[in-house]
From TrEMBL:
Listed name of the protein: Thioesterase domain-containing protein
Record-stated family: Belongs to the thioesterase family.
Thioesterase domain span: 9-225
Entry-linked Gene3D superfamilies: alpha/beta hydrolase (3.40.50.1820)
């Protein structure tokens, strides 16, 4: 099923309002034998011309269709913030279909599912309040927050994605994740508290730990190497465990 090589196809799902660009250095910082795929949601990055999607399940289904031919051999998902939600939702959709699942799931800066949702309405904040919130989070270039023309250009995608995150609710009775799961976050994150990150243990049969780093919601932005070192080790361990169970 998995073969004997050390190759892994890793799909990376970006944060709200973002694109693959924040992660563009990751392929060269991860193992050379890996096939690292940096994804874009519709309406940004390489998919700028496509209509945006403001529903998490619909966006996960979009990726399910788009990646169908590539979800073969050993593959894994890593998602940051909104991207972690999409990686989780896509994994649940694959499980419901009874098809091949990722050998590993990496979830960053995203709290565990809450039946009642996040309880926030950031996507509906007035412009000035939303800019202040985004400045506290980090991740959004300051020129976008300060320049009216740039803000007008980027605000629709930011509001779209925040709406997607805030309107999502987990499916009642959703099964626990079956593959190894690692969770990552920043000590100074103003959006997601460590206990919310640790809550993923209640949703994973093989919770492999919470790893915390210095920094805020975008704790890896200045230097992704510490995070990616753990990602490489964690995903490789999960792949080795999968091969030990089914080496064929």
């Amino acid at each position: 099923m998995y073969g004997t090589g050390d190759g892994l196809r890793l799909f990376v799902f970006h944060h709200a309002g973002g694109s693959h660009l924040l992660y563009r250095d990751w392929p060269r910082l991860l193992p050379a034998s890996w096939d690292v795929r940096l994804l874009d949601a519709p309406g940004r990055g390489r998919l700028t011309g496509e209509p945006q999607i403001d529903d998490a399940r619909a966006l996960a289904a979009f990726f399910r269709r788009r990646l169908a031919a590539d979800l073969s051999g050993p593959f894994a998902f890593f998602g940051h913030s909104m991207g972690a939600l999409i990686a989780y939702e896509l994994t649940q959709q694959l499980a419901a279909e009874g098809v091949r699942l990722p050998v590993w799931l990496g979830l960053s800066a995203r709290g565990a599912p809450r039946p009642q949702g996040e309880g926030t309405r950031r996507h509906a904040l007035p412009d000035e309040e939303l800019r202040l919130h985004l400045a506290a989070m980090g991740g959004t270039p300051l020129e976008v927050l300060k320049d009216p023309d740039l803000w007008e250009m980027f605000a629709p995608a930011l509001r779209n994605d925040l709406k997607l995150v805030e309107n999502w609710r987990p499916q009642p009775g959703a099964p626990d994740l079956r593959m190894p799961v690692n969770v990552y976050g920043g000590h100074g994150d103003v959006v997601v508290a460590p206990e919310r990150l640790a809550g993923w243990e209640q949703h994973a049969r093989r919770f492999m730990g919470l790893r915390m780093f210095d920094g805020g919601h975008f704790y890896f932005q200045a230097d992704p190497v510490p995070l990616l070192g753990h990602v490489a080790r964690d995903a490789s361990a999960a792949l080795a465990a999968a091969r030990a169970v089914d080496p064929a």
